From TrEMBL:
PANTHER family membership: FIBRONECTIN TYPE-III DOMAIN-CONTAINING PROTEIN, TENASCIN
Localization per record: Secreted, Extracellular space
Name of the molecule in the record: VWA1 protein
Domain Fibronectin type-III: 1-91, 92-180
Organism: Donacobius atricapilla
Gene: Vwa1
Domain of life: Eukaryota
This protein's UniProt keywords: Glycoprotein, Repeat, Secreted, Signal
Listed SUPFAM superfamilies: Fibronectin type III (SSF49265)
GO cellular component terms listed in the entry, alphabetical order: extracellular region
Principal subcellular localization: secreted
């Protein structure tokens, strides 16, 4: 029954606290700062009627020290403190580019490349159809060649980033192989 954080993301969290004040008896001063940079403290005033607040625009993978100071005109309440560490930023691939398209192959590249990604999976299969092949690509790489394809065919290519945290994010693009030479 004290100040605590829920709904933690890479850039926000929700603070919840017990009802100490009311609209009539005062307000809360909320102070929060990155533990590594206490000089960057931010202060917010919150109505005495509130018992929760979302803090946003925070830095990822950062520990924040938070103090809730009840400013009561009736009783003295000691400040409530807690600390919260935001999550690592998980950014999905924001672009998938297809290049060097030939009758039997094309090149797939993606961005951005992030340290938090362990590996990438490249899934590809002809449209329409449900035969899908998978390529595993090391997380340090941002491109791969897809080969042994049928000419003049549209493929759906999905790049999935597999984060060290176990999360996955995907982005898809379409690719067309070129017409083959006659007689192929």
């Amino acid at each position: 029954n004290r100040l605590h954080a829920t709904d933690v993301t890479s850039s926000s969290f929700r603070l919840t606290w017990p009802k100490l004040l009311s609209q009539e008896t005062g307000y809360y001063s909320l102070e929060y700062a990155p533990r590594a940079e206490p000089a960057r403290k931010r202060t917010q005033q919150v109505s005495g009627a509130h018992t929760s607040l979302v803090l946003s625009d925070l830095a990822p993978e950062t520990t924040y020290d938070v103090a809730l100071i009840p400013e009561s005109n009736v009783h003295y309440f000691p400040p409530q403190t807690t600390w919260v560490t935001t999550l690592a930023e998980e950014i999905s691939p924001v672009q998938v580019l297809i290049s060097e398209s030939g009758p039997h192959s094309f090149h797939v590249s993606w961005a951005p490349v992030l340290d938090s990604v362990a590996s990438y999976q490249v899934l590809y299969g002809p449209l329409p159809g449900n035969s899908v092949k998978v390529l595993q690509v090391d997380g340090r790489h941002n491109s791969t060649a897809v080969e042994h394809l049928a000419p003049n065919t549209t493929y759906l290519v999905t790049v999935t980033a597999i984060y060290r945290s176990g999360k996955e994010k995907s982005l898809s693009a379409k690719a067309c192989t070129q017409e083959g030479e006659p007689g192929e």
